[in-house]
Write a structure and sequence with these properties.
With 716 residues, the protein is α/β, with parallel strands linked by helices. The protein is built from 23 helices and 28 strands. Iron/sulfur cluster binds next to helix 2.
Length: 716
């Protein structure tokens, strides 16, 4: 049999007539693994496979998502032509008709209701060039203040915490290369084994080298398996747990007093606040035994070097920004930053989670991480864009708040690029109703996502295989994603679409770009002198140097591998510590008699975001074709739920039905549901609309729910 198979494969191989290689980068997570699409053509058909390519970040590795990333762009359901909704059905129209339709509706809505009646909703999966251009498009072509993006639901808490603590936000303060040589690692609320699998070898190597790994998560995951100590906290209690660890560090004096004196403000206030807290209260809030807090603090305090990493588990809460700040308080208290093998990493989720938050897609931001409310910053960008400063709109509102304005009728039309907000936002039932109220919804996407189905007009957008541009990966390394795969039908790149719409709106002079590189060269100027300074980076350098870590301020600047070696980015050069309360200002869901279980949400290895792309991949969707609820068997017994049974989960916001999956590794008071599915499996139907006041992050990680078997059992 084996012989026969070998013979068959050899025959197949002989039949390969041509082979083409397309260099590109994975479209999914923030590792941005370099890859190659191999296209083989023989007499019968074309076949494709994706293989890894060497680079400084993923070192040639790919995970299951990357290996199958070619399946969705080649899928038969790709949108290839502009589609206009007529009598409830999408019909194919020409680009000319699509652009005329847009011009007519933009003009009509803005003449009747003002410029701010239109909004723009962007994405952290698009290139830096497109994120930059989208910000410019909103402010210069549409003249609206309403623009925000899906990264608000993902990275805003870490970004806000790093900006407040360090004075700047680059996700990783060090390059990944330092991880294997650090001696203690705290992984807070991150499941890298499923979310960024190719980063795992850095941590595994650290463990081989003797590092002590502390994982903080309510569940046992592939990531907690590599940990020496797992703090299985109650969902939502991260800030309190950090206070417990800090209290031990202070009590047992693992402090780096010289560092605190010379390089940090605010330590005294933190020390006083933490001293006022009772360990017994922290134990009660977190559910983590005191001896485990001691063990974590001792290992992190005593080891010479250490790093802390946070991700959505800590961040997606109504005090996410403060909770991250408290982990940074731990790092600063022991002086483990700004030197070799010491530092912080916010493990970004989306492919361009870093770059897309730097160049003007956010409601309050201009390119280079400039502030839209800062007069000097406004003057600089107005000059780059060749407009009057007074014509630059002011600050808008965050993603979910924009949706509230749609619901209230203040925003009547929306341009949506590469995002699926009716599934990804909290309180998803409300969000869908808001989108149904829009008079005018234009969506640029590859597929008819759940949100695109609600559009008046869908524009066919290119994929990562076709669309060249830069992406800034988890480290803050700017990389050039090459892309030369031929486009089908009348698909256009997002940047081309924006330029063409700007042209019909009479703004061609500001959007006369003919390549992504031309846009990048304008972005370089716009970012110059800003916090995220890309001015020294060119496409030529990116090709030659395999990526550059920003800031990179001149053509001879090699980029910045390690941040904060001599000063932090606040004007006095010092980092800022602030006391963080055990309790959030915006209260989190509490379990009650009616809703007696915590619900927390997250990802699985085979899917990405709301699954619009990965659900189109046969190999990936076969691994997880439906959602599920992870539950401890003892809890399931109490609710008379069997393994693999359909279960109804209900919160005060809505209800969903998913299949149960037993796990001994989850807290008995908590259930877990991934967020990659829509409609009756969309876990965001259960999540509250409450936002972190500091960064407007929704509290995805903590809801209170009740559960029951979906089908009532009859009694015999
Ligand atoms: Fe790499 Fe992330 Fe893509 Fe996996 S999903 S191949 S880890 S970029």
């Amino acid at each position: 049999m084996t012989e026969m198979l070998l013979k068959y494969f050899r025959e197949q191989q002989k039949q390969v007539e041509t082979e083409r290689i397309y260099n590109t980068q994975c479209p999914y997570c923030s590792m941005q693994c370099k890859m190659q699409l191999v296209e083989q053509t023989n007499v019968k058909r074309k076949t494709y496979k994706t293989i890894g390519r060497d680079n400084p970040t993923s070192q040639g590795r790919l995970c299951i998502k990357g290996m199958n990333a070619h399946q969705h762009p080649l899928h038969k359901d790709r949108i290839q032509y502009p589609l206009l909704k007529v009598n409830g059905e999408f019909v194919k129209i020409s680009w000319r008709e699509a652009l005329d339709y847009i011009k007519e509706h933009v003009t009509e809505i803005q003449e009747k209701n003002g410029a701010d009646a239109l909004g723009v909703y962007g994405s952290a999966s698009i290139t830096n060039e497109e994120a930059y251009l989208l910000g410019k498009f909103a402010r210069v072509a549409l003249k609206t203040k309403y623009i925000d993006y899906n990264g608000r639901l993902c990275m805003s808490a870490a970004a806000s915490a790093a900006s407040k603590t360090f004075g700047m936000d680059r996700g990783f303060t060090n390059s990944l290369q330092e991880i294997p040589f650090t001696e203690c690692i705290m992984l807070a609320g991150t499941n890298i084994a499923e979310c960024q699998p190719t980063i795992m070898p850095y941590f595994e190597k650290a463990k081989e080298n003797g590092a002590f790994i502390i994982a903080i998560d309510p569940r046992e995951t592939g990531t907690t398996k590599i940990a020496d100590l797992h703090l299985k906290l109650k969902p939502g209690s991260d800030a309190a747990l950090a206070n417990g660890i800090l209290k031990v560090i202070i009590e047992e004096n693992y402090l780096d007093e010289r560092f605190l004196q010379e390089r940090v403000n605010g330590f005294e206030e933190v020390m006083q606040y933490v001293a006022s807290l009772e360990f017994s209260v922290i134990e009660e809030i977190t559910g983590v035994p005191l001896e485990k807090m001691y063990q974590a603090a001792r290992m992190f305090g005593q080891r010479e070097t250490g790093m802390i990493f946070t991700a959505r588990g800590v961040e997606q809460q109504t005090d996410g920004s403060a909770a991250v700040q408290n982990f940074l308080n731990i790092l600063l208290s022991v002086g483990k930053i700004g030197k070799p093998r010491c530092g912080y990493g916010a493990i970004t989720g989306q492919g361009n989670g870093q770059g897309a938050r730097e160049h003007g897609q956010k409601a309050d931001q201009l390119p280079g991480y400039r502030s839209i409310e800062n007069h000097e910053h406004r003057m600089y960008i107005a000059d780059v864009w060749n407009i009057e400063e007074k014509d630059l709109p002011r600050k808008g509102v965050s993603a979910y708040e924009m949706i509230e304005k749609i619901h209230d009728g203040e925003i009547k039309g929306l341009f949506l690029v590469c995002s699926n907000p009716t599934v990804s936002n909290p309180n998803a039932n409300f969000v869908k109703k808001a989108f149904e109220k829009l008079e005018f919804l234009v969506v640029a996407d590859m597929f008819e996502s759940e949100t695109a189905k609600l559009a008046n007009l869908i524009l066919p957008a290119s994929s990562y295989l076709e669309d060249e541009g830069t992406m800034t990966n988890v480290e803050g390394r700017v990389t050039l994603r090459e892309a030369s795969f031929p486009r089908r039908g009348e698909i256009k790149h997002d940047w081309e679409i924006l330029c063409e719409i700007a042209k019909v709106l009479g703004k061609e002079e500001y959007f006369s770009f003919s390549s992504a590189e031309e846009i990048f060269n304008e972005l370089r100027i716009a970012s110059k002198g800003g916090i995220a300074d890309y001015s020294g980076i060119t496409y030529e350098r990116l090709r030659a140097e395999k990526g550059i870590l920003w800031p990179c301020r001149s053509l001879t600047d090699k980029g910045t591998e390690r941040l904060f070696e001599t000063r932090f980015a606040h004007s006095d050069g010092k980092a800022m510590m602030v006391p963080v309360s055990n309790q959030a200002i915006v209260p989190k869901a509490k379990i009650t008699k009616k809703y007696p279980l915590y619900l927390t949400t997250g990802r699985v290895v085979s899917h990405y975001l709301t699954g619009v792309q990965t659900r189109k991949s046969a190999s990936l969707s076969a691994r997880n074709f439906e959602s599920f609820m992870e539950i401890h068997p003892s809890t399931a017994k109490k609710y008379e739920i069997s393994n693999q049974e359909l279960v109804q989960i209900e919160s005060s916001y809505g209800r969903i039905v998913v299949r149960s999956k037993f796990s001994e590794g989850i807290r008995p008071d908590t259930v877990f549901v991934p967020f990659h599915w829509a409609d009756s499996q969309n876990v965001n139907n259960l999540v509250s609309e409450k936002l972190d006041p500091a960064c407007k992050m929704p509290g995805f990680k903590v809801s209170a729910v009740n559960i029951s078997p979906s089908v009532k059992r009859s009694s015999y």
